[in-house]
């Protein structure tokens, strides 16, 4: 899927470890631990594709490469903190940072990565890009607070869920897409197009991940299935199922504390059309991302961005 930017992504992989460059070996080891696990690199790949799609020479500037790296560092920092909050045992198939080291080291490693990303961001010498990417870090915090105060709350609406998903996931993709266009000094309408592409593709990805948390296996997810249920994070499949399975409310009210509660909840969700409704919601956002791309001039990199949207649609059918 990313053959056009394969070399760029390979360089990005090697640069990430150089960029974290912590002086204290424990801090470096904690940050390196998660980078060693790999990951899909979807976010930096999208940044690089948007960079090429909106550059008249279809070239990637050094600032674009650094923006892609910053995007992945910010994303990784948020994962380290999320894992502490949710007490996840594994991430990307390996032990989480706080399990390998400690909660304190994991929090400090996450803070360090955010700080490093901010430093490299400032060195782009582009105030508008600094503003839009800096806002993402506050969005992460707002999204985490929104999730925290709605844990095990059966009154949460789909609208609340989508808003939280924007802050926690889509904000970074949307902002980095817009920033990539800004570095190319392209007009505000084009910036808006790619911001909205990133927003909707980000929401589609998040909804799809939430579906897979219910339907996937630990092997495919790289973390235990049903972890959202355990942490009281009520996602779209569960929210849609609540209307048809009142028994779910009892399980949520007792916070899945009894043996078999999580398994029972998954079974109840599968007895409804909730998974299909959640898939429809993801498809709606993937199709919205395609609509924004239709308004932009055609090139090979736009085709790849469209392919990503279609990949999501086909994957969840």
From TrEMBL:
CDD domains, A to Z: Trans_IPPS_HT (cd00685)
GO function term, MF aspect, one: prenyltransferase activity
Necessary cofactors: Mg(2+)
Coiled coil: none
Keywords from the named record: Isoprene biosynthesis, Magnesium, Metal-binding, Plastid, Transferase
Pfam family, one: polyprenyl_synt
Lineage top rank: taxon: Eukaryota
GO biological process: isoprenoid biosynthetic process; quinone biosynthetic process
InterPro entries linked to this entry: Isoprenoid_synthase_dom_sf (IPR008949), Polyprenyl_synt (IPR000092), Polyprenyl_synt_CS (IPR033749)
Record-stated family: Belongs to the FPP/GGPP synthase family.
Record-linked PANTHER family: ALL TRANS-POLYPRENYL-DIPHOSPHATE SYNTHASE PDSS1, GERANYLGERANYL PYROPHOSPHATE SYNTHASE
Protein's UniProt name: Prenyl transferase
Lineage: Eukaryota, Rhodophyta, Florideophyceae, Corallinophycidae, Sporolithales
Gene this protein is translated from: preA
């Amino acid at each position: 899927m990313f053959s056009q930017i394969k070399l760029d992504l390979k360089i990005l992989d090697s640069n990430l470890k150089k960029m974290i460059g912590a002086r204290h070996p424990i801090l470096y080891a904690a940050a390196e631990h998660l980078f060693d696990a790999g990951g899909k690199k979807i976010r930096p790949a999208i940044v690089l594709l948007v960079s090429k799609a909106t550059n008249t020479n279809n070239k990637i500037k050094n600032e674009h490469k650094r923006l892609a790296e910053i995007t992945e560092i910010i994303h990784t920092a948020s994962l380290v903190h999320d894992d502490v909050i949710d007490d996840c045992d594994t991430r990307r198939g390996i032990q989480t940072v706080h399990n390998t080291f400690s909660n304190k080291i994991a929090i400090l490693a996450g803070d360090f990565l955010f700080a490093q990303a901010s430093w490299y961001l400032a060195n782009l010498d582009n105030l508008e890009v600094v503003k839009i990417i800096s806002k993402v870090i506050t969005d992460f915090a707002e999204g985490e607070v929104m999730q925290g105060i709605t844990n095990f709350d059966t009154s949460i609406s789909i609208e609340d869920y989508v808003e939280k998903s924007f802050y926690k996931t889509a904000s970074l993709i949307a902002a980095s897409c817009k920033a990539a266009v800004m570095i190319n000094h392209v007009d505000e309408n084009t910036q808006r197009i790619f911001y909205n592409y990133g927003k909707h593709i980000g929401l589609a990805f998040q909804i799809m991940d939430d579906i897979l948390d219910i339907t996937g296996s630990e092997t495919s997810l790289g973390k235990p299935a049903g972890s959202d249920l355990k942490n009281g994070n009520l996602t779209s499949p569960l929210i849609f199922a609540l209307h048809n399975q009142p028994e779910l409310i009892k399980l949520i009210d007792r916070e899945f504390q009894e043996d078999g509660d999580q398994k029972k909840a998954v079974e109840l969700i599968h007895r409804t059309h909730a998974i299909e409704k959640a898939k429809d919601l993801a498809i709606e956002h993937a199709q919205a991302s395609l609509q924004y791309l239709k308004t932009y001039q055609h090139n090979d990199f736009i085709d790849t961005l469209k392919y990503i949207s279609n990949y999501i649609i086909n994957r969840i059918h």
